[in-house]
């Protein structure tokens, strides 16, 4: 069995993220998720795949749990749930310490950097995003 390798992404809260109510504007979470998912790709994918492939967001579903504030130390944890064809499905949890601030489900389309057409990832690239706990030997 394999499990997604969690990727932690530190979020910097800027004064322009703060809305009229004194907490982070909901739109900033979208910016954070996009940065976190792309950082996850660059951190785990091979260099040649990063050069040849780009990602286009298709859908984000954000559930807001608690507000974030300017001085907060916020971390996004990104998990690649699955890859289906040229699409990737992610879960991103945004936390302040142990508190969940937001949960995000998103889907992305992988595109070829030159043609901008949808492109599938090879199995070996996909496997870099998952760890295996198999102790059984293949045979």
Looking at this protein, list some descriptive labels.
alpha+beta, Thiol Ester Dehydrase, Chain A, 4-hydroxybenzoyl-CoA_TE, hydrolase, Thioesterase, 139 residues, HotDog_dom_sf, two-stranded antiparallel sheet
Task: Compose a concise summary of this entry.
This protein is of the alpha+beta class and 139 residues long.
Describe the structure.
With 139 residues, the chain is α+β, with helices and mostly antiparallel strands. It has one domain (2-129): Hotdog Thioesterase (Thiol Ester Dehydrase, Chain A, Roll). It has 3 helices and 7 strands. The chain has helices spanning 26-44, 47-52, 123-127; strands at 2-4, 7-11, 53-64, 74-84, 87-96, 99-112, 130-132. The strands form 2 sheets. It has a 5-stranded antiparallel β-sheet with strand order 2-4-5-6-3. Strands 1-7 form a two-stranded antiparallel ribbon. The longest helix has 19 residues, at 26-44. The two termini are 16 Å apart. Mean pLDDT is 93; it is low at 134-139. This is Thioesterase. Belongs to the 4-hydroxybenzoyl-CoA thioesterase family. Pfam families: 4HBT_2 (PF13279). Keywords: Hydrolase. InterPro entries: 4-hydroxybenzoyl-CoA_TE, HotDog_dom_sf.
With strands numbered from the N-terminus, the spatial order across the biggest sheet is 2-4-5-6-3
Radius of gyration: 17 Å
Average pLDDT metric: 93
CATH class: Alpha Beta
* CATH homology superfamily: Hotdog Thioesterase
Q: Would you give the CATH topology?
A: Thiol Ester Dehydrase, Chain A
């Amino acid at each position: 069995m394999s499990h997604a390798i969690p990727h932690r992404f530190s979020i910097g809260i800027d004064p322009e993220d703060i809305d009229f109510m004194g907490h982070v504007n909901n739109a900033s979470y979208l910016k954070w998720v996009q940065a976190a998912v792309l950082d996850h790709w660059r951190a785990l994918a091979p260099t040649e795949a990063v050069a040849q492939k780009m990602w286009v967001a298709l859908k984000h579903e954000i559930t807001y749990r608690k507000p974030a504030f300017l001085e907060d130390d916020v971390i996004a944890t990104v998990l690649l749930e699955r890859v289906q064809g040229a699409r990737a499905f992610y879960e991103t949890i945004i936390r302040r310490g142990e508190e969940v601030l937001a949960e995000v489900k998103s889907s992305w389309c992988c595109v070829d950097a030159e043609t901008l057409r949808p492109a599938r990832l090879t199995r070996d690239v996909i496997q870099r995003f998952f760890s295996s706990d198999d102790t059984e030997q293949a045979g």
